[in-house]
Write a structure and sequence with these properties.
elongated, Son of Sevenless (SoS) protein, Chain S, domain 2, about 120 residues, mainly alpha, 6 helices, single chain
Length: about 120
């Protein structure tokens, strides 16, 4: 999905910093391709948040398995050179909301994601 979005971004989308106004819904038409790319990035971040934090009944050990899975997905993104999704996953994983899960991080294997 990222590749298809990036293929649509044109050099003129960056002119005059029109893309910096992407968060204003009235300005979506100014740089629609950049807006779509940034929206997709936000969706990936939200997916990681929801997966890690969405179920309050999860135990720290269960949540640690989800965190490990996210780390493995990030490693796959790195291998595929999908830097946008990799960055979105890392952005979410480094957020205070997820970093604050001390009990969860104790269960996360330090070796997760190191295998090829």
């Amino acid at each position: 999905m990222d590749v298809e979005l990036f293929k649509k971004v044109m050099p003129h989308d960056f002119l005059d910093s029109i893309w910096s106004q992407w968060d204003n819904r009235a300005n979506e038409h100014l740089a629609p391709n950049i807006h779509a790319t940034m929206t997709h990035f936000s969706r990936v971040v939200k997916c990681v948040f929801t997966t890690c934090l969405g179920d309050p009944s999860m135990t720290a050990q269960d949540r640690a398995r989800v965190v490990e899975l996210c780390i493995q997905v990030a490693k796959k993104c790195q291998g595929l050179r999908n830097l946008s999704s990799l960055h979105a996953i890392l952005w979410a994983m480094q957020s205070p909301s997820i970093q604050r899960l001390k009990k969860t991080w104790r269960w996360v294997s330090r070796w997760v994601g190191l295998s090829p």
